[in-house]
């Protein structure tokens, strides 16, 4: 994927925006230590990566952006024999374009520029969360698989409140059972179940919904949660298992 936009910037420019985020500052302090935190922050504010400290900052930001970004827009790159998923992802005010079979080009400092790049340079067309269901099949937004894949975090029947697949399948059902045992028969199941799903959603990069209206013949509504990388799925499963 070539950098075909004047609004696409390198990590040096992106880090000047990231330096304003308290969450990124906290992450930076944990990574480099309080002794050199101020020096590291000044490098970020100036858009520099100097010496060993600069290399540490560079690697920290690249890894965090890659693994902690949240999807804000999704689309498809239409191909003669298949469609490739594409997403615009956000990390504390910095945006980038992820697309299957394409390398990242760099970073954008506003969402509209990133979406415009995906549309013009990749010929991507937008998809809503439900568009993946147009053939009554749920497809992973990251690998296009209709089967269980490394990106699948959880499949949950929200009508009967039970998990049916994904990396969180067992631990989700165990935690839900423990919550109900603890709260008793008078508990507001819907409220506690929604809270548990909110926790899953905070770990996921994307989600899809299949309902009786969108997929005739179904008796329940299902939520599918995905992570963009296998490693993130594994990390999310560990986090969810330690509330």
- The strand order across the widest sheet is 3-2-1-4
Strand content: 15-25%
What number of domains?
Answer: 3
Radius of gyration, whole Å = 20 Å
Could you give the count of β-strands?
A: 8
Structural class: alpha+beta
Q: How does the major sheet shape up?
A: 4 strands, antiparallel
Overall 3D geometry? globular
Please, how many helices?
8
Could you give the order of the helices and strands?
Answer: HHHHEEEHEEEHHEEH
- Rounded mean pLDDT score: 85
The end-to-end distance, rounded to whole angstroms, is 40 Å
How helical, in percent, are the residues?
A: 40-55%
The parts where pLDDT drops under 50 for at least 5 residues are 128-135
List the keywords.
42% helix, alpha+beta, four-stranded antiparallel beta sheet, single chain, 3 domains
Question: What does the model show?
Answer:
With 243 residues, the chain is of the alpha+beta class. It has three domains: 11-67; 70-126; 131-240, no CATH class. The chain is 42% helix and 19% strand. The chain contains eight helices and eight strands. The strands form two sheets. A four-stranded antiparallel sheet has the order 3-2-1-4, sandwiched between helices. Strands 6-5-8-7 form a four-stranded antiparallel sheet, covered by helices on one side. Helix 2 (22-32) crosses helix 3 and helix 6 (169-183) packs antiparallel against helix 7. The two termini are 40 Å apart.
């Amino acid at each position: 994927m070539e950098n075909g936009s004047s609004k696409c910037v390198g990590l040096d420019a992106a880090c000047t925006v990231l330096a304003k985020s308290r969450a990124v500052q906290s992450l930076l302090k944990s990574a480099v230590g309080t002794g050199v935190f101020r020096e590291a922050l000044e490098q970020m504010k100036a858009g520099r990566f100097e010496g060993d400290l600069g290399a540490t900052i560079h690697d920290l930001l690249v890894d965090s952006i890659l693994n902690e970004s949240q999807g804000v827009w999704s689309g498809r790159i239409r191909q003669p024999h298949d469609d490739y998923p594409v997403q615009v992802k956000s990390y504390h005010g910095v945006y980038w374009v992820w697309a299957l079979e394409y390398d990242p080009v760099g970073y954008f400092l506003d969402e509209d520029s990133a979406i415009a790049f995906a549309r013009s340079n990749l010929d991507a067309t937008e998809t809503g969360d439900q568009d993946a269901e147009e053939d009554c099949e749920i497809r992973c937004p990251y690998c296009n698989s209709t089967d269980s894949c490394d990106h699948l975090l959880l499949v949950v029947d929200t009508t009967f409140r039970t998990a049916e697949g994904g990396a969180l399948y067992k631990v989700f059902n165990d935690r839900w059972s423990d919550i109900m045992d603890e709260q008793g028969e008078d508990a507001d199941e819907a409220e506690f179940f929604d809270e548990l799903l909110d926790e899953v959603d905070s770990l996921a990069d994307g989600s899809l919904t299949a309902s009786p209206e969108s997929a005739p013949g179904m008796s329940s509504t299902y939520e599918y949660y995905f992570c963009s990388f296998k490693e993130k799925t594994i990390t999310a499963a560990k986090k969810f298992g330690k509330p």
